[in-house]
Amino acid sequence: MRSTLLLAVASAFIASASAHEGPHDPPGTAPSVCLATPTDASCSTYSLPNATITTAINDICKTSSFLPGCSLNTACTADSTLPAANCAPLTILATLCSATDDAALTTEVCAKTYSVFCGASSLIPACKSQPAFPGLPSGKAITGAIYSVCQEMPGMSDCKICPGPDATGYSKCDEVKAWQGLCLDMPDMKQCPPYNTMCTNTKFAPFCSKTYKAPNGGNGTATGSGSTPTPTGGDHSNHNNGAGAVAASMALVSAFAAVAVALAL
Fold it and tell me: Which domain holds residue 260?
C-alpha cells in the first residue's frame, strides 16, 4: 500500500512539472534550431520564446520610439484588455520589421531576428497567425502625411506635437498621436485615407478613438523619443500556460484519488 501511495504521488509531481515546461528549450541548452533554421520540419509545432521577441522590440524602440510599431507597443503595454490580435508581441515586432521605409532604423535588429525566424519559408505557426498590424503605415509615411497637412494648415492644434522632419526624414515625436489627431479632426483631408481605412478595419481604440483612455490615465500612445516600455506579455503573449495549468491540475487530482484508494486498502 505504501509503495502504491508513493508511486502515485511521484507520478503526479512529474506530470505537473512536465505540464509547466512550455515550449521553450531546457535551461543551459543551445537555442532551438527554429530560431536559425525555421524551415526545419520540427518548427511546425514550435512556439517562439517571448523573451526573444520582446528583446528585439526593446532594442529597436530604445532608440526609435517614434516609430509606429513602438507606439503600438506603448499602447498595448498600457492596456492588457486590448485585442490580442493587435497586441501579440510578434505582431508588434512584425509591424516594426515589415515597414520597409523604416529599414534604416530597424534592419540591424530585424535582420538577426524576425527576418530570420519569420522569413517567407518559415514553418513557425505564429509567423502566419500573428502578422503585422493591418494598415499601420511606416514612420516615414506618417511623418510625410503630418508634414503635408501642417504645411497646408499650420494652425491645426496637433501640428504642435511634431516639428518638421529632420535630415533623417523623421519628426522624432509621437507621430501616431499627431496623425490620429489631425485625421480625427478633418477625416476628409487628402492625407487621411490610410488612417480612415486602418481604423475602419481594426477599430483599435488607442489609435482610432477621440475618447479612449488607457487604464493608467494616458491615451495609450508613445510619450516621446526616450520612452521605451517593456513590451506587453500576459494575455497578449504567445505561450500556452493555460493548457499546462489544466494538465497539472488533472495530474494532482489523479494523485489525490490514488492516495484515497491506497488509504482505503
Answer: 2-12+14-20+244-264
